[in-house]
TrEMBL record:
Domain of life: Bacteria
GO biological process, one term: DNA recombination
Protein name in the entry: Integrase family protein
Keyword tags: DNA integration, DNA recombination, DNA-binding
UniProt-listed PANTHER family: PROPHAGE INTEGRASE, PROPHAGE INTEGRASE INTS-RELATED
Domain Tyr recombinase: 210-404
Family, similarity comment: Belongs to the 'phage' integrase family.
The organism of origin for this protein: Methylomonas methanica (strain DSM 25384 / MC09)
Name of one Pfam family that matches: Phage_integrase
Single GO MF annotation: DNA binding
InterPro entries linked to this entry: DNA_brk_join_enz, Integrase-like_cat_sf, Integrase_catalytic, Integrase_DNA-bd_sf, Integrase_DNA_bind_dom, Integrase_recombinase_N, Phage_int_M, Phage_Integrase
CDD domains referenced in this protein's UniProt entry, alphabetically: INT_P4_C
Length: 427
């Protein structure tokens, strides 16, 4: 028969050539193109039925015929079985495509982090710092692991590595960030469960001890004596006194622009984008604070920024001032940051820029300023919901008076008491 097929030629009419066992070779006419196909004829419940086979060769057609004959003997319609085969093949193809899509959806931790950044973190003020932390401590360790394969052991490995180098504060903040990222992934069905859900921040990283360091008045006097020989930049020296006298945060000061300082109105404006709690804030400058801004202005290196970076393309890194202060308080180990590594060591122990803010607020309280006014000066968000909703008084005059009283006390403590009005305790 193989020989016959080779010899078959299309004719004017269609040819149906039997091969036996219900198999027929169909040769289309010349006008229909002369194509060759295979057909199978069978009986089912007394009815004669024809079906076209999918085979391309005679050998394939004979095998397909034999398979369908077995199906027909079981009382199953071969045509129906052929349709089912098509559906099964399609279902298998769809399953394969679904599995491929699932595999492609497997997101590495690096990919998850990138998606989290693009979706949720674009408005975060500390975005650059978050990216730096992940690039340093997370992605090199678990960045290539599929996010859905991450377990507690992966997370604790990252955290333990940070703790081993003594950076407990960083380990705590990073665990909080990892928890936020994996919750983001759970909410979007990228992963099924959060591997950090059962990890206690306090147990894994050690408890976050709230600082209560406040510089005494004697320490402020001593600080005033130490600063000239500490080897700090003029701008950093001014920053120390500004933070103490205005209660502003180091980040808010680091990002300040000259347009935010009004020397005539004696104000320092902190816009929403610079404020930690997204609340714009106006500081009414005491003469003490105003003099520090004037001192800073006399050494200005930028027309825009109070504290520019080296290229004057942006503000200085928010950690710059903190690092300079920290580098002058290394009382046991020599610091490569400064030869004067003990220049700012004070009797009460190590102090930070945030401690200056706390010290200024404490001094206000000791000088009789009402707590609500101090909270306004600190630009704190009111924790009491009823007060937050119903009390919107700004207490501007009271704030200005509070800063004035603080400034006068600082003037006395630093020895520059020319033309200082005697302090009046607030009622």
């Amino acid at each position: 028969m193989k020989f016959v097929i080779r010899k078959l030629k299309p004719q004017d009419k269609e040819q149906i050539i039997p091969d036996g066992g219900g198999l027929y070779i169909r040769v289309r006419s010349v006008t229909e193109g002369g194509a060759i196909s295979f057909r199978f004829r069978y009986l089912l419940q007394g009815k004669q039925i024809w079906m076209t086979l999918k085979a391309k060769t005679l050998a394939e057609a004979r095998k397909e015929r034999d398979d369908y004959k077995k199906v027909a003997k079981k009382g199953v319609d071969p045509v129906t079985e052929q349709k089912l085969l098509v559906e099964r093949a399609r279902a298998a193809q769809l399953a394969e495509q679904a599995e491929l899509a699932r595999q492609q959806a497997l997101t590495s931790v690096s990919g998850l982090f990138e998606r989290w950044v693009m979706t949720d973190l674009q408005q975060r003020k500390d975005l650059a710092e978050v990216q730096r932390m992940f690039a340093k401590d997370v992605l090199p360790i678990i960045g290539t692991v599929n996010a859905q394969d991450i377990r507690k052991s992966h997370v604790t490995d990252v955290i333990d590595r940070i703790k081993q180098r003594g950076s407990v504060h960083t380990s705590r903040n990073l665990l909080k960030l990892l928890r936020q990222m994996f919750k983001f992934a759970v909410d979007r069905d990228i992963i099924e469960f959060d591997p950090t859900a059962s990890l206690s921040v306090s147990k894994v990283t050690t408890k976050n001890t709230e600082r209560d360091r406040v510089l005494s008045q004697d320490e402020i006097k001593l600080l005033n004596e130490q600063l000239p020989a500490a080897g700090l930049m003029h701008s950093t020296q001014a920053a120390i006194w500004i933070m103490l006298s205005t209660l502003c945060r180091v980040g808010e000061l680091s990002k300040a622009q000259w347009k935010h300082i009004d020397f005539d109105a004696k104000t320092f404006f902190i816009p929403v984008e610079n404020s930690k709690n997204d609340k714009a804030h106006t500081v009414y400058l005491s003469d003490f604070a105003l003099n520090q801004f004037r001192f800073l202005h006399s050494f200005r290196q930028s027309e825009i920024w109070l504290f520019p970076n080296t290229k004057d393309t942006d503000h200085v890194c928010e950690k710059s001032i903190t690092k300079q202060i920290d580098g002058r308080q290394n009382s046991t180990v020599y610091s490569n940051r400064s030869k004067a590594n003990q220049a700012l060591v004070l009797p009460g122990g190590k102090w930070t820029p945030h401690d200056l803010r706390r010290t200024g607020a404490t001094m206000m309280g000791n000088l009789g300023i009402h707590g609500d006014v101090i909270e306004k000066c600190l630009n704190h968000t009111q924790e009491n919901k009823l007060k937050r909703v119903y009390q919107h008084q700004e207490l501007k005059a009271e704030q200005a008076d509070a800063w004035r009283i603080l400034g006068e006390r600082l003037t006395l403590l630093t020895g520059d008491n020319k033309n200082v009005i005697p302090i009046k305790r607030a009622s």
